[in-house]
Design a protein that fits this description.
β1 and β2 form a beta hairpin. The protein has a single domain, classed as Alpha/Beta hydrolase fold, catalytic domain (Rossmann fold, 3-Layer(aba) Sandwich). The chain has 250 residues and is of the alpha/beta class. It is globular. It has an eight-stranded mixed sheet, sandwiched between helices.
């Protein structure tokens, strides 16, 4: 359990296990502990896991409150620099997948292979509609309890995260990848989408698959947003390990 001072924040992260590094990036309003529900123990048997809390999440601070995926990518690259990791494999879900798209286009040489789960090139209107309706006021007690277990910097941190979820409706520059942008990605990439994702239609996964040179696509039947947790975890782990282990990645 460690904290890195970087880019004006305290970035909390954990390193566990042996072997080649595998970076695990959680989704919006989540934290590093979420990976226990998506195969963490199985990944730990094969890799040294690097699991940060994104700025403003979990135990990481964010004095400015605003969060962009691009800035989180710079934070995570700073963490890799701090750990002396020049090249790694990585998995990101939702916000974490969006962060990986930024990392893999900013510094393509840093990511050998990656899995982007429920990531997006841009926010379509159906996602913005959901973002506009995201509740900040009058959250039920059960949701407060869940969020307080994940986020350790007080209720103001939690409210800031909910406000950020709603503010994404007006975000256009942060997630704005073109096929030409994604063509810069050199990592062997597995794109994972649920075919019932309410935020991002599956056609967006196909567009990313066509744009990224070394890409594979797995569409999860009946899967929603982030279809890799709990009962879905065993199938995800099997597919993820098969993708991350091909010969010639390093």
């Amino acid at each position: 359990m460690s904290v890195l001072q970087a880019n004006g924040i305290e970035l909390y992260y954990e390193v566990d296990g042996d072997g080649e590094p595998l970076l695990l990036l959680h989704g919006m309003t989540g934290c590093h502990e979420d990976w226990q529900y998506a195969g963490r123990q199985e990944f730990l048997r094969a890799y040294r896991l690097i699991t940060p809390d994104a700025r403003g999440h979990g135990r990481s601070t964010n004095p400015e409150k605003n969060i962009t995926h691009r800035q989180c990518a710079h934070d995570t690259l700073a963490l890799l620099d701090h750990l002396g990791i020049q090249r790694c494999r990585a998995i990101g879900v939702s916000m974490g997948g969006n962060i990986l798209l930024h990392m893999a286009t900013l510094q393509p040489e840093r990511i050998a292979a990656m899995i982007a789960v429920s990531a997006t090139m841009h926010f379509p209107e159906q996602a913005r509609t959901i973002m506009r309706a995201f509740p900040v006021e009058n959250q039920p007690a059960s949701e407060w309890e869940t969020m307080r277990r994940r986020h350790k910097n007080g209720d103001a941190q939690i409210v800031a995260l909910w406000e950020q979820c709603r503010a994404l409706k007006d975000s256009y520059d942060d997630m704005n990848f073109t096929p030409a942008d994604l063509a810069r990605i050199s990592a062997s990439t597995l794109i994972v989408y649920g075919d019932r994702d309410p935020l991002y239609p599956v056609e967006m996964a196909v567009e990313m698959y066509r744009a990224i040179p070394s890409a594979a696509l797995w569409v999860v039947p009946g899967g929603g947003h982030g279809p890799i947790f709990l009962d879905a975890a065993p199938a995800f782990v099997h597919a993820a390990l098969a993708h991350l282990r091909p010969a010639g990645v390093y």
